Structures are given as structure tokens and as C-alpha cells.
Amino acid sequence: PYIASNHIALAELYASTYRDSLALVSFHNAIAIDTLAAGPWLSLADYYEKKRDKSSYLSVLIRIFANKEIPVEDKIKEWDRLISNRQDYRNFYSLYDTLIKQLRIHHPDNKEISSLYINHLVLSGESKEALRLSKRIFNEGTPTLKDIFLVVSLEDLLGRPDSVVHYLDKGLKFYPNNAD
User: Fold this and answer.
1) Residues 138-154 as b or e (16 or more Cβ within 10 Å = b)
2) Looking at residue 177, what is its pLDDT?
3) Nearest to residue 63, comparing CAs of 92, 88, 42, 32?
């Protein structure tokens, strides 16, 4: 009774026979045994995804994205998969917002996550905040071409032609042989 994997196996058996309430009890029993373990949370997320319960699935993902056992690369892949469906992104915006903030909180120095967060801000209509973060990344060491393009694009979106020229000039100093 104190082994999480046994409760997960039982939950999966219940789920396969359409006894959803018993499956959920067994998943939650597995989680109660070790709330920090990734396995029970991943199994519960898989259950909700198979049931096409998007809200519950995303809610469980919030816990998974906070879990240090899960490699950051896997979290990024899942985020990319999730945002490919723009309809769900609109319908479950608050959960998506919490998910990306969870990634950002737990991986503040990860440039890829910062880029995903900036994209989220742009899609959310928070272009000024996206620009602020983009400029911070731009000014930390040597910016990538993508960083330069992002700042220039956001400055252009916000209607700041002088800033566009300024950041293009700065970009050319970093990449003088790249006219793109």
C-alpha cells in the first residue's frame, strides 16, 4: 500500500476499464505517497491527456514544470507542442500563462525559456514588457542574431523607428558581415 508504482498500475487498470473515479483515487494515492516524485504526476497528466481533459492536464503540468526531476529540454518540447494549438492557447490562456511563468521561475537563466516567455508576452499583447526583457537579453554579453531581430521587431511593432535604427547599428557591430 505504500509503493506509488502499485497505485499507478492500479489506476491504469481502472482507467482501462472506464472506472474513472477509482482511477483518480489511485492516482492521487500514488501522489500522496511521494508528492515530489515525478512519476505519479506524469501518469496523472497522461491520464488526463488521454481523456482529453485539457484543463486538468494543464493544471497537472504546472506541477510537472516545477519538478526538478524533469529535464528542462522535455519541458520546452512540451511547451512547444502545447502552443502549436492556438485555439487551446486562447481557451486556456490563464493556465498557459501559469505554465510559462513556472518555467521562467525555475529556469531564469535559460535563454531558450526566456525567448519562449518573450514570445508569450507578445502573443498576450504585452509588447512593452517583451521589449524590456529582450533588451536585457540583448545587453547581456553577445546577443544572437535572433536576439537582435527580436529587439528590432519589437521596436518596430511599437512604432519606434529611431530605436530600430539604433539596434540595427548595434547588431551590425556584433555581426558586420551579416546584412540580414
Assistant:
1) beeeebeeebbbbbbbb
2) 83
3) 42
Task: Say if residues 29 and 23 touch (Cβ distance below 8 Å).
Answer: no
For the record, the C-alpha cell of 2 comes out as 505504500
* Torsions phi, psi for 84 (to 5 deg): -70, -20
59-85 exposure pattern, b = at least 16 Cβ within 10 A, e = fewer = bbbebbbbeeebeeeebbebbeebbee
Distance from C-alpha of 37 to C-alpha of 32, rounded to nearest angstrom: 10
Helix/strand/coil for 84 = coil
Residues 79 and 94: beta-carbon distance below 8 Å: no
67-106 pLDDT, tens per residue? Answer: 999 999 999 999 999 999 999 999 999 999 999 999 999 9
Q: What is this structure's pTM?
A: 0.83
